[in-house]
Amino acid sequence: MSAAGLLAVAVSGRGLVDPGEPVILPDDEGFTRGRAAFETMRVYDGRPFRLAQHLARLQGSAERIGLERPDADELEALAAVALEAAAAPEAVLRLYWSPGPPGGEHRAIVLVGPIPDWIEGARARGQRLVSLLHPRRSAPWLLPATKSTSYAVAIAAESEARARGADDAVFVDGALRTGDIGYLDEDGYLFLVDRIKDLILCGGYNVYPRVIEDALYEHPAVAEAVVIGIPDEYRGQSPKAFVALRPGAHADEAELCAFLKERLSKIEMPSHIEIRASLPKTLIGKLSKKALADEEAARRNA
Question: Using CA atoms, how far apart are residues 46 and 35, in angstroms rounded to an integer?
Answer without folding.
Answer: 29
